[in-house]
């Protein structure tokens, strides 16, 4: 039976989970499906396109946190929606091996824009959305690198505790440092945005479209 595009994406995510982004090649994805690499090109023109589809799958559950018309949403509610959107994005990326690298790379391929960034831009404006995205990507990538180092035995003592999740995927009490630092960073960005909201360059009352 011929594989569908969805089959290709699922197989690519299996390879990613087993071997990481560095080894997630078109050849290995084809082997996972027991087909020749040329068969994949009936569905995707290149690896960049496949990475974009993988990124879409990773963040598919990350969406807007309000269904009200934006003009009716108070500034404080927009900031809270942006805060939760960034948190959801980070958790979605951390749930998949090298997920942050995949999503960040796919966003770069798409000239730096993504669906999630567009949602953030509606809430807080384009410049703030881009800043929040860069911070969320960078923090998630750093967290995944830290956890992978711990899994390989490259960290010791408190470093291991700060990296290792407990069973079920939740951070340990010591590991909550990483989550806490993410929260503090988001608050710093949003706090700066609030401080600037009366400046001509930042107007939360007129979300970008």
UniProtKB/TrEMBL annotation:
Keywords: DNA-binding, Transcription, Transcription regulation. Gene3D superfamilies: Homeodomain-like (1.10.10.60), Tetracycline Repressor, domain 2 (1.10.357.10). Residues 2-62 form the HTH tetR-type domain. Residues 25-44 bind DNA. The keyword Transcription applies. InterPro entries: Homeodomain-like_sf (IPR009057), HTH-type_TetR-like_transc_reg (IPR050109), HTH_TetR (IPR001647), Tet_transcr_reg_TetR (IPR003012), Tet_transcr_reg_TetR-rel_C_sf (IPR036271). It comes from the Bacteria. Signal peptide: none annotated. SUPFAM superfamilies: Homeodomain-like, Tetracyclin repressor-like, C-terminal domain. This is TetR family transcriptional regulator. It comes from Leucobacter chromiireducens subsp. solipictus. The lineage of its organism: Bacteria, Bacillati, Actinomycetota, Actinomycetes, Micrococcales.
